[in-house]
Amino acid sequence: MKFQLPEAIETFFRVSNSYDSSLLAKCFAEDAILYDEGLAYHGPTAIEADIVKANNNLQVKTDVTNAVGKNGEMVVLATISGNFDGSPVALDYYFTIKDQKITTLKIVLAGK
User: Is this model's pTM higher than 0.85 or not?
Assistant: First the structure.
């Protein structure tokens, strides 16, 4: 990766691209929440299941293009590509981290 990211975020993107689900849940705190496509997923197991399903079924690959810390969050801009209509698409990932674990992740279309 081109940017200095907290370890949990770097691991999140690395294992998402390699489809290594064994490490994905370990990136998240027990009370973590993922907001994606209008839905909320609570806890590492639910978050892992959603990400693995989407990434594996659509053969998603993520390319991080920018990252900046802002208002206590790490905002990562990435382009995802895969077997889905509209590929590739730019997304903003809003992360909050506590004790080296992701506590909140909100994924939205870039610039929204």
Answer: yes
- Report the domain count for the chain: 1
- pLDDT values of the chain reduced to their tens digit, one per residue, 112 residues: 456 899 999 999 998 888 777 788 889 999 999 999 899 999 999 998 888 887 777 888 999 999 998 888 999 999 999 998 999 999 999 999 999 999 999 999 998 7
Q: Give me the domain span that covers residue 90.
A: 7-109
Distances, alpha carbon 75 to alpha carbons 24, 52, 94, in Å: 19, 22, 5
Token pair, residue 24, equals: 């994905």
The H-assigned helical ranges of 1-112 are 7-18, 21-24, 44-58
84 lies in a domain?
A: yes
Q: What is the CATH number of the domain that holds 101?
A: 3.10.450.50
Select from 49, 16, 55 the least CA-distant residue to 34: 49
* Run of H or E residues at 67: strand 61-70
